[in-house]
Amino acid sequence: MAESRRSWLDGPHIPSEYDGPDDLSKWPGEKLGLPKRGPGSMASVARRAAAVIIDWIACMIVAGFINAFITDALGDTPTLTLLLWLVVGIIGGWLFARTPGMAVLGLGVARVDVPGARVGLWRAVVRTVLTAFILPAAMVDADGRGMHDRGTGTVVIRS
Fold first, then answer.
1. String of b and e for 135-157 (b: at least 16 CB within 10 Å)?
2. CB of 145 within 8 A of CB of 25?
3. Between 20 and 30 A from 86 (CA), which of 100, 123, 128, 140?
4. CA-CA distance, 17 to 15, in Å (whole number)?
5. What DSSP letter does each residue of 69-118 carry, written as one string?
6. Mind listing the pLDDT tens digit for each residue in 14-28?
7. Which of 15, 23, 24, 41 is nearest to 155 (CA)?
């Protein structure tokens, strides 16, 4: 099979665990059993990034309020923003399978190995901590899943 032409702007090709002799899928998430469009389909990288930005801005506002009016014992605003963002990501992913930013944009987190099962605490913790490091979330495979999703067996879908 001939490999398509790639440039350095395409970034690295990260093989998917579902790559094989016929590794070109018709749409992102096809090999994961996800529909092409609509509810349950793979969320785009742009929508996922926008959800993270919404969560970050909300946490920054709350952190600024806490530092200005309540206490600065928890650290300055950027530190408290990160701590709040981690808590929101872990609690939201664990209990609701979405963060507030994901809910605003109609996204959710789902398990790949057992469709319909809850994400669970350990997956929510690992996903959120790896996302905080940015690089695992920025490195996506052919399906558009970040390394943090591949490592936890999850995928971000449209709800």
1. ebbeebbbbbbbbbbbebebbbb
2. no
3. 140
4. 7
5. II-STT--HHHHHHHHHHHHHHHIIIIISS-HHHHHTTEEEEESSSTTS-
6. 555 555 555 567 888
7. 41
